[in-house]
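A common beginner's mistake is to predict each chain separately and then try to dock the pieces by hand. The better habit, illustrated here, is to supply every component at once so that their relative placement is modeled jointly.
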Amino acid sequence: MLSVTNVEVVYKDVILVLRGVSLEVPDGGIVALLGANGAGKTTLLRAVSGLLDVHDGEITKGEITLDGERIDHLDPSKIVELGVSQVLEGRRILGEMSVEDNLLLGAHTNRKESSQNVDRVYGLFPVLQQRRKATAGYLSGGEQTMLAIGRALMSGPRYLLLDEPSLGLAPMLVQQIRDLIVEINSQGTSVLLVEQNAMMALSIAQHGYIMETGKLVMDKPSSDLLADEDVQEFYLGLGGEGEAKSFREVKHYRRRKRWMS
Amino acid sequence: MIELAVTLPQSLTRFLQATVEGLSLAAIYALLALGFVIIYKSTQVLNFAQPALLIFGAYMASYLSITWGWGFWIGVLVAIALTAGLGAGLERVAMRPMVGKPVFAAAILTLGLDIGIRVFVNDLIGVNVRAIGDPPEGGFGAPGLPWPQLPWNWGGVIIQPRSVVMVITTGVLVMALLYFFRRSRFGLAMRATAIDQEVALAQGINVGGVFSMAWILGGAMAAVAGVFGATAFAGLSASNAIAALKALPAVVVGGLDSINGAVVGALIIGLAEAYTATYQAQYAPWLGSNFSQVVPYVVMLLVLLVRPYGLFGTEEVERV
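With all components supplied together, the output reads:
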């Protein structure tokens, strides 16, 4: 179990971005983390994978544990070795390198099982095998997302942190990526899925967290979240129809304000 | 002397002679330029301490092989290892705390390191030119291998064996480096770090190790260049470090972040310098004597005017 307890993150010594966040990713589960822009979702992932340092951020309170062992303040390379691998937001594939080199890079900490993991990745994403000699920058958006996920899988992680895999993809491709995440999960990798596309994330996750300005405001099983009136309105774009516009906006504002505080 | 039966026309001999000189200069510049490029690519810092590494390497080689009498090969190899170690030490102690600080500040820091080390080494060298020694007769320590200490004479073109050794060694080192970057696990990690540090970190690459490795490679190659320089410029004195400053034009011409560019830039600069040395006195005597020393910088200026990012460099390379 990957668990985050009461974590507080400060950037540049002054900007408090996470204000005591606690979250759990159980073994073999898919957990969704939703929230608006700037809520701190990516920061939370960085805290887990040890990438805060690059952004001049620091965990000032709380702890992050992997199966009971603390992993905050470990080097990112150590965290990857322990089996937590992150797919960065915006894919971040190395466009100048070939598809194969990108994948080999992911196997940096795990050379022994590299050929086995390559087979697994090619099994999940046959299109990558077809294009393995191609320059990664010339792949289509969907293929690049697959490459980014494949690269993270090359270290043989037990926990996969996905930061907005649906970013910039057509709805059909989002469906495909969603099915692939389910497939990866069924092969035994637990997934923490950060998404703006709440519908997609909640449809496959067992549990969901909702974040607003550095705090978790909701923590419920996905089905409850999908049924929640506020979530429907703020995140799924449903509900509120037929009501008087002005009244609704006042109400919306008040409810929203309650969430933010 | 090994004589070749053919006699070549004098103008051709002269041209070929200049080419040979130019190539051996280029070999030195290429090694230094590669050091610049590797360190720049992985750390974004232009390492102005390269002359200090060069002179340190050459001094250690001279000291170990002559003064301590370890012999040429052991002396040189240990000197290369020591210089690589010095590079790694400088990176760890002085440069690592500068990660995340403006690269301009880091580059200025390397200037300080350069001055500090050079003052120290120059004092050790003293006022006299030091010898660096020759490989033992018989060549490469292998008795029976015909390796003449005397120059070859091919139809009037005098070729020093050391020029051949320099060009071949540099060629082999460049090939080895390219292979290292293309094929090896750590080379791949270094390339990835050069492109995107955060991605490299996220893959579990030890980015600090990559920085160390860059300085180790830079130091080792500067030491080899220093040994070459001390043989080519007939001995080791404080002024040998100037060769490293001429590698800077080579890097700028080739493009700060291109390994192939560093080699091509070194060739251009080396040949331009040698041809100028040969022909300038005759065709443009009004430029004064020793104009060839200035030519690398002139070439650099011209290239900067046309392609500010160098012949092979990435556009919008950050300038220091």
